[in-house]
């Protein structure tokens, strides 16, 4: 009797947990699927399911030069911010990762703090400082602001990769007569490269998508893609935006698939 | 061999390598925040008269306080939804094979990497008057007039929960992965049922992950400017939009600075409460 009660109890537990998990996974994926399906509508409105399917809004997107201009700006800023984040972040990660010193832990908290502080408050603060020192907002101020909020991803992923590096490898290399620089180039860098790439990828995506910092640090001539989309959506529900969203979703899925192969992204983020 | 002096540890690098980023942060992160603090302590826009006027204004204004209150409440609601939905995902992850594990992670990751405007836009399509939910319910004859889902607290919470789910699930997966599966069996063989084992063994041992997830989710939910403004609409005002309106539309920089500082302190307070809980739970879990 007790045995049967227990299996029933175990069954109820597993059923509830599995059901909730599946509902949650559907909830996570559904919005992207909905946008993707709606973007192929042949109609003028965002009805679901669409009355028919066509590529007309993707064709429309081809001529939307304002969006192209904004996308180009976002891409350029994201590439510069990612490059700067990698150079500064990897160097900093090398310094703090194996150190037990208090200064290393303090620096680590400092470098991670943009992740929890409101980006909008930082955007405003940076704007005020730049205007105080007479540096006008421009693509340069955008790159600086984006680097601050993107560098934590590079530092965190590089530190994680370094933590998995066996110290004995470095000792063996030194014992065999390799210089520190040579060891770094031939041993350390190849082993931590997937971590750096994963960090750079997330930094790039978050810069490309950044609104709160860009809102304050861009000049009138530098239209950024997410801001353009946000402003378009506040006015009306445009099907062109759905097509653009479709492009972004497909591009994201493709890049995640590549990153999964190159860096093992999924394992990297769960340990 | 004794060729290398003992003082030169080949396995670590000098702290000097952190200097460029530290300098960069000093100039472009710490200095701006100090400037923000400085301006918030002035009563006039030009920054000539010192005073606590901006803070008094905020703390004595029922409207400002209600904005702060509803923002903090929003964070709590989103965090609760993420925890309730995210925990079973992490639990399922530990019970399936490596192939399905990768699929689960990639599904969980997708919203984190998809543009925030796109994710939010999707919720407008789903929750709108002619959105999927209303259209389905109407065609099934369950409702006559469309439900108001968009521009409601419910809409904002559910949209934010979807967007922030990875921040909860990833630390939970890590935490559950560190629990010795033998403990589960031990608990069961000692006579505890599955639910009892879950609440008395698995949940307490995963507390560090729960707390890490809650910290990230809470901070992200209350600072999520785009989702709050698009799904919440004009009727619902939260701290980020309040800050933006004061700074950008009204050009009231000293008051916007004070809002920023109060908002920063609120986030820091929540994060430090969670961190303290985390430290306590580690002592508990490590026993």
TrEMBL record, chain A:
PROSITE patterns linked to this entry: ABC_TM1
Main location: membrane
Intracellular or extracellular location(s): Cell inner membrane; Cell membrane
GO annotations of cellular component type: plasma membrane
Key words, A-Z: Cell inner membrane, Cell membrane, Membrane, Transmembrane, Transmembrane helix, Transport
Gene3D superfamilies: MetI-like
Membrane-spanning ranges: 12-40, 75-97, 109-130, 187-208, 239-259
Gene Ontology biological process terms in this record: transmembrane transport
Segments forming domain ABC transmembrane type-1: 71-259
Membrane topology according to the record: Multi-pass membrane protein
CDD domains with a match to the protein in the record: TM_PBP2
InterPro entries hit by this protein: MetI-like, MetI-like_sf
Family as reported in the entry's similarity comment: Belongs to the binding-protein-dependent transport system permease family.
PANTHER family documented for this protein: INNER MEMBRANE ABC TRANSPORTER PERMEASE PROTEIN YDCV (PTHR43357:SF4)
Stated name of the protein: ABC transporter permease
Automatic annotation (TrEMBL), chain B:
Family: Belongs to the binding-protein-dependent transport system permease family. CysTW subfamily.
Localization in the cell: Cell membrane
Listed name of the protein: ABC transporter permease
Topology relative to the membrane: Multi-pass membrane protein
Presence of keyword Membrane: yes
Record-level GO cellular component terms: plasma membrane
Source domain of life: Bacteria
Keyword presence, Nuclease: no
GO biological process, alphabetically ordered: transmembrane transport
Transmembrane segments: 17-41, 62-91, 103-128, 149-177, 197-218, 255-277
Keywords of the record: Cell membrane, Membrane, Transmembrane, Transmembrane helix, Transport
């Amino acid at each position: 009797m007790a045995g049967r009660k227990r299996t029933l109890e175990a069954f109820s537990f597993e059923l509830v947990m599995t059901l909730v998990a599946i509902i949650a996974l559907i909830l996570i994926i559904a919005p992207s699927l909905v946008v993707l399906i709606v973007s192929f509508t042949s109609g003028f409105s965002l009805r679901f399911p669409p009355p028919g399917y066509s590529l007309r809004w993707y064709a429309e997107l081809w001529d939307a030069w304002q969006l192209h201009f904004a996308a180009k700006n976002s891409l350029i800023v994201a590439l510069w911010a990612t490059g700067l984040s990698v150079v500064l972040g990897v160097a900093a990660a090398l310094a703090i990762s194996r150190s037990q010193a208090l200064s290393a832990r303090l620096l680590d908290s400092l470098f991670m703090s943009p992740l929890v502080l409101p980006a909008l408050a930082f955007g405003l603060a940076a704007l005020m400082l730049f205007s105080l020192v007479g540096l006008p907002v421009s693509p340069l101020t955008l790159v600086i602001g984006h680097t601050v909020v993107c560098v934590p991803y590079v530092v965190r992923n590089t530190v994680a990769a370094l933590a998995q590096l066996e110290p004995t490898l470095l000792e063996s290399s030194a014992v065999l007569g390799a210089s520190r620089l040579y060891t770094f180039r031939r041993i350390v860098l190849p082993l931590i490269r997937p971590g750096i790439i994963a960090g750079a990828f997330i930094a790039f995506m978050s810069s490309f998508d950044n609104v709160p910092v860009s809102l304050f640090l861009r000049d009138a001539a530098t239209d950024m893609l997410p801001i353009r989309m946000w402003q378009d959506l506040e006015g009306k529900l445009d099907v062109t935006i759905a097509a653009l969203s479709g492009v972004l979703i497909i591009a994201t899925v493709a890049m995640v698939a590549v990153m999964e192969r190159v860096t093992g992204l999924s394992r990297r983020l769960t340990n | 061999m004794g060729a290398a002096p003992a003082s030169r540890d080949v396995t670590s690098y000098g702290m000097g390598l952190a200097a460029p980023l530290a300098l960069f942060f000093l100039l472009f992160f710490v200095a701006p925040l100090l400037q923000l603090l400085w301006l918030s302590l002035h009563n006039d826009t030009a920054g000539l008269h010192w005073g606590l006027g901006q803070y008094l204004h905020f703390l004595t204004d029922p409207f400002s306080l209600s904005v702060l209150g509803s923002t903090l409440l929003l964070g709590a609601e989103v965090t609760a939804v993420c925890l309730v939905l995210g925990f079973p995902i992490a639990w399922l992850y530990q019970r399936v094979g490596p192939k399905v594990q990768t699929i689960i992670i990639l599904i969980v990751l997708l919203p984190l990497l998809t543009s925030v405007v796109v994710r939010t836009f999707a919720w407008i399509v789903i929750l709108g008057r002619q959105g999927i939910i209303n259209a389905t319910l109407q065609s099934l004859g369950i409702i006559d007039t469309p439900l108001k889902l968009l521009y409601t607290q419910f809409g904002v919470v559910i949209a934010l929960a979807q967007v922030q789910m990875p921040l909860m699930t990833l630390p939970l997966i890590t935490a559950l992965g560190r629990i010795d599966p033998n403990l589960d069996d031990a608990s069961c063989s000692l006579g505890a049922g599955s639910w009892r084992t879950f609440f008395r063994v698995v949940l307490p041992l995963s507390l560090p992950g729960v707390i890490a997830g809650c910290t990230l989710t809470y901070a992200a939910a209350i600072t999520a400017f785009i989702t709050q403004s698009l799904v919440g609409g004009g009727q619902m005002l939260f701290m980020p939009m309040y800050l933006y309106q004061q700074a950008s539309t009204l050009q009231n920089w000293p008051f916007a600075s004070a809002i920023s500082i109060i908002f920063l302190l609120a986030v820091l307070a929540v994060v430090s409460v969670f961190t303290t809980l985390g430290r306590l739970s580690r002592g508990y879990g490590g026993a």
